[in-house]
Amino acid sequence: MSTPYERIRAELADAERSGPATALTHLRAVLDEVSQLIDEQLADAVVDEGLSLRAAASKIRLTENAVGPRLARTARLSAYAHEGRVNAKSVMRARYDKETGIAPPPPRNIERKPMTFKPRRPTS
Question: What is the phi/psi pair of residue 69, to 5°?
Fold first, then answer.
């Protein structure tokens, strides 16, 4: 199985060799892969390195409110999510479980949908 970095490199190479219309498909795959990789790295940073949600958000130039839902989609923290979000209390519990050797709860089903544009007004 390839790593996320290998998949990103392969998609970029395919995009570079493709025409503009086909390249868009490959570039979208890169965006999705990078987004998932960022989410997983965020989870590792807040649990393993003690980064706060605010500091993590700052590193990726998002608001603090945007980090909770992203963490809820990760395999590592999905079991700690409440109502589709991971909050500071959830992260503290995950850190505690890691430090004490308590097995984390089984991960919840992670539904990864790419972000899409939703118009405010219906188009006619």
Answer: -65, -35
CA atoms within 13 A on the CB side of 12: 10
Tens digits of pLDDT across the chain (124 residues): 799 999 999 999 999 999 999 999 999 999 999 999 999 999 999 999 999 999 999 999 999 999 999 999 999 999 999 989 999 999 999 999 999 999 888 776 656 566 566 777 776 6
pTM above 0.85, yes or no: no
Helices (H) and strands (E) in the chain, counts: 5, 0
- The CA dihedral of 14, 15, 16, 17, to the nearest 10 degrees, is 50
Domain ranges of the chain: 4-100
Q: Up-side HSE of residue 27: CA atoms within 13 Å toward CB?
A: 10
Q: Exposed, middle or buried: residue 119 (CB in 10 Å: 0-12, 13-18, 19+)?
A: exposed
